[in-house]
Each structure stands twice: as structure tokens, then as C-alpha cells.
Fold:
Amino acid sequence: MLSSRALRQVVFAIVTLFGVAVVSFVLLRVVPGDPIAMMIAPGASAEDIARLRAAYGLDKGLVAQFVIWLGHALTGDFGTSISMRQNVVHLIAGRLPATIELTLTALAVGLALGIGAAVASTLGTRRLIGSTVDNANGILLAVPDFVWALAFVLLFGVAWPILPISGRVDPRLAIDFTTSFLLIESLLRLRLDIARDVLAHMIMPAMALALPLAAVILRVLKGALESEALRDYALLARIRGASRLRVTLRETLRNAMIPTLALTGVQFTFMFGGTVIVERIFAYPGIGNLAIDAVINRDLPLVQGLILTFGLIFILINLAVEASFALLNPRLRHG
Amino acid sequence: MSPALLSIAGLSARLKRPPHTPLLRSVDLEVAPGEVHGLVGESGAGKSTIGKAILGILPGAIELAGGTIRFCGEDLLAMPAGRRREILGSQIALIPQDPMTSLNPSRRIGDQLTDGLRLKRGLNGKALEDKAVSLLRDVQINDPEAVLRRYPHELSGGMRQRILIAAAFSMDPKLIIADEPTTALDVTVQKEVLRLIRSMQASHGTGVLFVTHDLGVVAQICDRVTVLYGGMIVEQGATADVLAAPSHPYTAALMAASPRHDQTGSGMQPIPASLTAALQGELARHGLERVTHA
Ligand SMILES: Nc1ncnc2c1ncn2[C@@H]1O[C@H](COP(=O)(O)OP(=O)(O)OP(=O)(O)O)[C@@H](O)[C@H]1O
Ligand SMILES: [Mg+2]
Structure:
């Protein structure tokens, strides 16, 4: 039963990725912009340009190009970045950990803030508290991540410079890392000084990404908690003498998280879109920043690889959301 | 008569918003220790509103407009919230109407059943498990060890109602409010559950305020009965007296309208329109409109 479901999900993932590959391949080659034009020195001869085109396979037809690309991709070879002259897989693998650490931190912060605020709002009986939370929430929902990012740079980087505004780690502190998971590795190696520096670099971009997520979680969870609190089992818990906080934490939160989680998953995928601009603002060396460079340089193999990477991330997020549904809802575990 | 366990005096309730439609009109009602007190009336009469007022869970749209609710002499409406929670958790319990929605779908039966024992009695580990098993045995559930590990959706309505009854009795409360505890169940299960509540109540010496719209059920398990119509008490007394010689026409009509449990095949009689009209007139004289469900 479970294995057939797993099989279905793997097939679905492959079909999705293939679809993403086809669509992005076609789109990238139809849009204007010539990667060769971006890399040649001014005044190169027509033969030079033709030679480069042939070297990158750009002289062939669209279908032929795709078949060649797919054949290589199936063996794990996604080609060489045109602008950086490095293997695409290595390039992405080197940058991905920075984005994973950033987005997971932002996810954790967003969940903590959103859930915390929603739970706190159920404790106030007064209208005032509820409407204050709603108004604050309305404002939070309206402010996009990059606006937070710019505001943070101005506040904590310029006006009151207490945080580093660019990069991932102070080069003076950097050691020979064996992985690119700088935060995790420095924590595991007990280099708390480095972990602290990595966090200091991460806190502003992570907060910028986390606040819009927290706003969505707060909005959905608050409503779900309010309607769960009116259900019979929650009333019964109150009749048994449980305090409001206890009713929320023990009875309603878990059930209210089910609708919230679906939206958190969607919002988390949006966050990867957000990393493109936010990483750029903080010169943070993740795949979002890499994606901007790749697009500016019309670096087709790299853009293609990044699109597939994002596609794979979205699929994995959806799988994780489904798995956590089963954790929260006992009906799904048995049925 | 022994001193009252629950004593409601002059309780009035109305809608919070204008026109402040009255829902309860100066209700007086006493439940003695160990007594089963029936509260009957048709839908919308205000039975549940009385129960919710006692338990402090009136919906936001309804407000109390006067009266007192004393439990063992203490005014539940005037006491601080902390003291009230203490009493609610340990001395007053509810058997709810709908067993399908009254258990938390995401918590195991054992956890839900033992909340009070853990929280208020400080039981844990083996003692808690043993107590939970014996609670389920008391309500005649087979294989209680396995049931404790189940989730609500794995159990039938009758099973869930037994579990809710076990939970209500788990703290050995002095008063139980049972709000139509059998209406959501199959007819065959209804009788078993009624018998169960009656026998548990008798062995624990618990006072019960038993809300129902069915005089047949009242005849079966209630010592005393209060008849409510449009938020007003129209008759009150020992069950045998009231049923043998109803002094109020509404009670008589309700008797005719309720299915007889001791007789099979007798059809229900609707409340005659003439009586309804007469009652409307009487209520109007009391400044009370009949509140009807849409
Ligand atoms: N949440 C609410 N908001 C507004 N009015 C309500 C609300 N709950 C109940 N009422 C009104 O209060 C009146 C009494 O309702 P109550 O639930 O006490 O009746 P009942 O006797 O328990 O009826 P039933 O047999 O249907 O349970 C009804 O007219 C109902 O419309
Ligand atoms: Mg009711």
C-alpha cells in the first residue's frame, strides 16, 4: 500500500521534472538574448562566433539540442556554465547549501513567529487584542520580503550598523570547511565563534524572508484556532477546567495546524523565489544570487540547471508537507 | 429534602444584541445530591442554555440578565475564574450530546480520558493506566487496554459516548450535566446508554441534570422533572406526580407528543395548534415571545 503510493510519487516527480525541463528548455531558447554575444570580446570575427556556437551546440536545431542535453542530463552531466566556465552541477552544489541553511532558518523563524503570535492572540479575551493583531497582521501581509531586506539594511547596516550587510562569513574567520553547510559544520565542529558570525550574516536575509511567511501563518492559523475553539471537544476541555492556553496547546493547535501546513508549504516554495532578490541585496552566495548572474549572462546551461533544481526543491517540499499531514492527522495514518 | 447541590434562582438570559430577545425568564431549579433531575421542553425552549450557563460556556451572542447559580452554596457566577475552573474540573462534569464531535480527533482515547486525573489528581504511569482501564470497564467496554490506544475515528458512536461517560465520571464529580446524551445514538444503543448513566449515577451518588425533549426518557430515569417552554418553567415536581397528573396543558401535550417507551407501535401526536396558540397567548402575557427555530 505504502510502497505503491511512494512509487506513484516518484513517477509523478519524474514526470513533473521532465515537463519543467521541456518547457524551460524551449522558453530559454525562444526568448531573445545571445549567450555567445555576452562572452565574446568586442570585434571578434564571424568565424570565431560560429566556432563558439558549434562548441556549445547552439548551431543545431531545438529538438536536437534538447535530445543532446537530455542524454547528458540522464548521466548527471548538466554541461558547463558559459559565463563561469565551471561544471553546472558543481557550481549549484557549491551554492545550494547556503540557500538551504538560509531558507530553513527563515522557515523555522517564520513558523515560530507565526505560531507564537497566533497562540498569543487566542489568550486575549478582549476585542482590542484581537483587532490589534489583525491590523498588525494586515500590514505584515502587505510588505514583501525585499522591502524588509532594504529596511533592515538601512536600519541595522547603515543607521545603526550592528550587523554585516553582505556575504556569508567574515573571510578573516573562515576555516577550511569540508562542506558548504557553514552553519551546520561550524556548530558540529564546535566553532561557535564562526557559527555566530554565520548567523549574524544570515539574520537579516532570514528575517526578511521569514516575516511574510509568519504573516500568512498567523492569518490562517488564527482563524483555524478560533473555529477549532468552538468545536465540542474544545468546549469540553474548557468544561474540564483547562485554561485557555492549555486548550490551545493541547487540544486545538494540532488540528488547526492541518490547514495551516498546506499553506505553509506553498508559501515556503514562494520563499525560494524570494531568495533570488533577497540574496542579491545581501550579496549572499546562494543559488538565488547565482540565478540572477546566470540570467544576466544568458548562461543557458546554468539557468537550465537552476530551474530544475528549483523544480526538485518544490517537489521535495510537497512531499514533506504530505508526510507531515500524516503526522498530524491520525485518520491519514490508518486510512 | 436534603440541601441542594445545585440551586438556580431567578436565572434570566437574553440575546446580547437588540432587541434583546429573552431566552430564559426567571428560572428556578434545584438538583439535590444523588438526584436525577429531568429538564424537558421542545427544541429552542432554552434547556441547553441553562446547562451552558452552569458550565460557563454560553455562546458570545447570549448574555445573562440576572439570577444566581449556586453550587454547594457557592455562587458560580460571582466567583473568580480560577476557583470556577477548579470546581468545573473536579466537581461538575458534562456528558455531551454528540459523541462524534466531542472527542479530539487527533488525540488518543487514553490521553483524553485521563486529562483530569493527570492534571488535577497528579496520577501518572501505571496508576494512571490502571485507573483508565477500570474506568472503561465501568462503562462496559471490552478490551479496554486496546481502546485506550485508539483514536476516536476508530470507534463507533456508542463506544465514544461510553468513553465520554467514563470521562465525566472519572473525577467522581458531585454534579453531572447530561445534555441530550442519547439523541445522537441508534435507538438500541440509546437504551443501553441510559441504563448505564442511571446505574453509574446511582453507584457514585452523583446528582444529574438530565436535559431531554423526551418525556419517555424522563419517566425512565428522572426522580424530578422541570418542564420548560419558551424559556419559562411551566411545571416542576416529582416525575411520578407530574406524569400522572400534569397540571399544565403544555406538559400534557408534550406527553402526547413523545413516543412511549413502554408501548410499541403508538404513534406520536403533534402538539395541537390550538394549544400552541393558547400557550403563545400565555407567554405574551409574561412579556415573552416564543422563540422558534427556523
Ligand atoms: N449561539 C447562539 N446565538 C444566538 N441564539 C442562540 C444561540 N444558541 C442558542 N440560541 C437561541 O437560544 C434559544 C434556546 O436555545 P437552546 O439551545 O437552549 O434550546 P434547547 O432547549 O436546548 O433546544 P434543543 O432541544 O434544540 O437543543 C433558541 O431559540 C436559540 O435560537
Ligand atoms: Mg439543546
